[in-house]
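Q: I'm writing up a methods section and want to include an example of the input and output format. Could you take the sequence below and give the corresponding predicted structure tokens, formatted cleanly so I can copy it straight into the document?
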Amino acid sequence: MTSIYFDHNATTALDSRVLEAMLPWMQTQQGNPTSRHFFGRTARNAIEHARAQVAEACGGYPSQVIFTASGTEANNFAIKGLANNQPATQILYSAIEHPCVSKPAIAMQARGWTSHSIEVSKTGQVDTNHLKTCLTTPTGLVSVMLVNNETGVIQNVAEIAEISRQAGALVHTDAVQGLGKMALNFTDLNVHAMSLSSHKIHGPQGAAALILDKRVDIAPLLHGGGQERGLRSGTENIAAIVGFGLACELAHAHLDQFTHHTNTLREQFESGLAAINITVFGSESDRVPNTSFFAVNGIEGETLVLALDRKGFAVASGSACSSDSTEPSHVLLAMGVNPDLARGAVRVSFGMHNTAQQVHDLLDTLKQEILRLKQLTSIAA
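A: Here is the clean output for your methods example:
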């Protein structure tokens, strides 16, 4: 049985054009990018071309792009690196952050920092009044994600950044789920640092970037040969970086097409959900076009995910990085959702290869499985 993939927020398939660009650097091209000979210069030129492609896709400058191996590393680099170059005060992060932001923020307590989460509304938006209250305590860093990986809700990062800057704080945003799904402009967001990742946009796993305001001092996580302006030492993964660069170029070029296609599919899907009275989370807020996060009363999300998987549909019960947890989504709990309902959360995230027929089939199967599972629950009771 062929499974239909509806989990694009977790990861995406490698674009064939990206693979083609990567293959020479995996098979025939030689040369360390730090070497002075022809092979080294060729490798260096390939990296710098990719750096320009990433910068173009996010409205930054090539000199602001620091390559890392993952979005998790980029977020840790931002949190720890920016904090370690300041006197210890307070780190703020939104209550709906991915663990690769919240956990390093909490870890900085061992170095004398305090860390606190910023509340969000029932619609998934950061509570700016609570942010202002938190900022009455001296704060060195504020980190708020641009797009939530579960709900798809978009934050007003520019406003949050302005409020935080006025209080003297540096600002970081995890924009991993925004790249390729909405227009990105590093300058307009008004932040000091922004994290991106390759494998969310049909690029390779193992490549990501931190976009950094060059006027800001940051302490490296890795020390060594001085690659990436001395901020991220280690021989560069040329093939992955080349692939990331092209994936950014393609995502940027086809953004309008992606937006139209996935939004059409989501409208079709959520119209079907509305017809059977299923709760959709974050639907009252601006969202990226491809994401739908919903729950069915009385049915565990993991149970429904496994049932759909057996029928040939790949969906998720929340963040891919916490999918082995049976705890309710921390995002939904922060939004004030009842824990019992939150345990039923399921995420569908669409991509360019999904079709209206696939969505129709998913809805039909979803209805059948909900009915079957409720009947089982009724019998068990």
